[in-house]
């Protein structure tokens, strides 16, 4: 069968790209090495509890515009719930609660200012110092953004006179959640890119969003149906072993086992650590190979009673960073509570045994949520993702190839880690997928396998 394009990888980037191409009437093949779609954002059913478990809790935002457009295309946008109020709850290691409430009626970014003023854990002096942060945010343009890429989040915020308490209680949880790397390691660029999108556009952008269904149900089945209904094919358990080179360009891919698939244009959505394992043609080799991954560890707990009264809470001063009430999010009935805990940038925890991670989670929850002390754990499950996201250390931004650019004839770069102007998140993956689809469409209009570099 002939295809107009080959997309390698069946995650958010690959499926958003392939569905956008299918919408344009192109016949596209998606090749995925695993027996299921979803890449780094997928779900499975826990055999004991019957609960749907994500490979790690994912948080969406109102500013994920292209992600929402992708889900709209495949008919599942309704599975994403935008939380009605802009509110983030915190619990610290002494059991004290705080809340960032951003009144939507004030507009952006005044809603943030009002939210910060209401934080009980910050002094007036801490809050007053935030005007310097606001001034810096408004002054940053493309050039000055490049200039801060050499600074870590910690260095940048300290340079702006932000107190240790403001950093610990306000910025650190944001930086960890968005960048999946500790503020001492992450570059300031990604934080600025994200905060601009989230707080400095409009209030809709600041809203938190959660999937009411498992991640796989959110976008993989719908994408597959959409692509196949338009003459495309989704090929599972097809591991690309090399790109097919012809006349100085890429003409498709070879799979493990000897098969190959030819197509006028090939879009790679592989993360750099997978791409680097392939014997790539010389023009595609580059400094991107120095990019590395940052891990996430998740601990799932099924409790005999509810201990968390909000959909999500940021934990302060603990190894565990966030706790989500999955029972509420997934609409599961019953008297207990299913919690999903997240440890971002979890380098030192990767080597820990699951039982030790459980003990750590228990200790953190007992300190932050006093109600947990009376709860009984009925089941638990640890999920480690060593290659969760791109590690956005200083200098990494410059190594990301531009999304949808062509490394050589017939080849297009895509994936969350390509340069989209965003940190490597779901929205970055979809922005890159849609940009790659647009590049392929332009190529077809011109009738030449020569995408602009
Ligand atoms: C635990 C966890 C929590 C996260 N939390 C959030 C969050 O809260 N919010 C957020 O926005 N983002 C979050 N992320 C990041 C988000 O999941 C990623 O940005 C996104 O899924 C990346 O999509 P992608 O399509 O670019 O890459 P991938 O999902 O990695 O897709 C690439 C695909 O290529 C396939 N592949 C690899 N090699 C080959 C080969 N040789 N042949 C064929 N196929 C191959 C892979 O199997 C994979 O399916 C989180 C990630 C993890 C792991």
- The CATH fourth-level homologous superfamily of the largest domain: FAD/NAD(P)-binding domain
Average pLDDT, all residues: 95
Taking all Cα atoms into account, the compactness measure Rg is 22 Å
- In total, the number of strands is 20
Second rung of CATH, namely the architecture of the largest domain: 3-Layer(bba) Sandwich
Strand order of the largest sheet: 8-7-16-17-18-15-19
Small molecules bound:
flavin-adenine dinucleotide
- The helix-and-strand class reads alpha/beta
Helical proportion, percent range: 25-40%
In words, what does this structure look like?
- The chain has 453 residues and is an alpha/beta fold.
- The chain folds into 3 domains: 5-43 and 214-291 and 393-446, FAD/NAD(P)-binding domain, CATH 3.50.50.60; 106-201, Guanine Nucleotide Dissociation Inhibitor, domain 1 (Orthogonal Bundle), CATH 1.10.405; 293-390, Protoporphyrinogen oxidase, mitochondrial, domain 2 (Polyamine Oxidase, Chain A, domain 2).
- It has 16 helices and 20 strands.
- The chain has helices spanning 12-23, 65-74, 110-117, 124-128, 130-139, 142-148, 153-159, 164-179, 188-199, 203-206, 215-229, 272-275, 326-330, 354-368, 396-399, 426-446, and strands at residues 5-8, 28-31, 43-45, 52-54, 60-61, 80-82, 87-92, 97-101, 208-211, 233-235, 240-246, 249-255, 260-262, 266-268, 293-303, 312-316, 322-325, 337-344, 377-390, 411-413.
- It has a 7-stranded mixed β-sheet with strand order 8-7-16-17-18-15-19, with helices on both faces.
- β12 (249-255) and β13 form a beta hairpin.
- It is globular and about 65 Å long.
- The protein starts with a strand and ends in a 7-residue tail after the last helix.
- The model is unreliable at 448-453 (pLDDT under 50).
- The structure holds flavin-adenine dinucleotide.
């Amino acid at each position: 069968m002939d295809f107009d394009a080959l997309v390698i990888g069946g995650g958010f980037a690959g499926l958003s790209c392939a569905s956008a191409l299918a919408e344009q009437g192109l016949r596209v093949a998606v090749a995925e090495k695993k027996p299921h779609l979803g890449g780094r954002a997928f779900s499975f059913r826990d055999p004991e509890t019957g609960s749907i478990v994500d490979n790690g809790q994912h948080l969406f935002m109102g500013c994920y515009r292209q992600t929402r457009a992708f889900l709209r295309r495949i008919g599942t946008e309704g599975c994403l719930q935008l939380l009605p109020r802009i509110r983030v709850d915190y619990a610290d290691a002494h059991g004290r609660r705080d809340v960032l409430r951003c009144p939507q009626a004030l507009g952006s970014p005044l809603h943030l200012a009002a939210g910060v003023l209401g934080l009980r854990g910050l002094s007036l002096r801490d809050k007053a110092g935030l005007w310097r942060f606001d001034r810096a945010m408004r002054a940053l343009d493309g050039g000055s953004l490049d200039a801060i890429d050499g600074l870590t989040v910690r260095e940048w915020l300290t340079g702006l006179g932000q107190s240790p308490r403001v950093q610990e209680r306000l910025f650190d949880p944001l930086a960890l959640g968005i960048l999946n790397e500790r503020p001492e390691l992450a570059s300031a660029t990604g934080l600025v890119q994200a905060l601009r999108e989230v707080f400095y556009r409009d209030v809709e952008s600041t809203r938190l969003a959660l999937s009411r269904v498992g991640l796989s149900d959110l976008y993989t089945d719908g994408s597959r149906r959409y692509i196949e209904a338009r003459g495309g094919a989704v090929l599972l358990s097809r591991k690309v072993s090399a790109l097919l080179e012809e006349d100085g360009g890429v003409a498709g891919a070879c799979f493990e086992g000897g098969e190959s698939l030819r197509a006028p244009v090939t879009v790679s959505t592989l993360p750099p650590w997978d791409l680097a394992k392939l014997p790539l043609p010389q023009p595609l080799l580059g400094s991107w190979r120095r990019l590395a991954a940052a891990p996430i560890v998740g601990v799932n707990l099924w409790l005999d009673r509810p201990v968390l009264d909000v959909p999500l809470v940021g934990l302060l001063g603990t190894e565990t960073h966030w706790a989500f009430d999955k029972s509420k999010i997934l609409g599961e009935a019953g008297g207990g509570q299913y919690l999903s805990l997240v440890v971002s940038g979890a380098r030192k925890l990767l080597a820990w045994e699951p039982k030790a991670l459980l003990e750590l989670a228990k200790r953190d929850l007992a300190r932050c949520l006093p109600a947990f002390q009376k709860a009984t754990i009925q089941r638990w499950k640890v999920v480690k993702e060593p290659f969760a996201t791109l590690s956005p250390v200083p200098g990494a931004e410059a190594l990301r190839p531009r999304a949808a650019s062509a490394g050589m004839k017939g080849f297009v770069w895509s994936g969350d880690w390509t340069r989209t102007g965003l940190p490597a998140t779901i929205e970055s993956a979809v922005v890159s997928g849609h940009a790659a689809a647009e590049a392929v469409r332009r190529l077809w209009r011109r009738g030449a396998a020569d995408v602009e570099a």
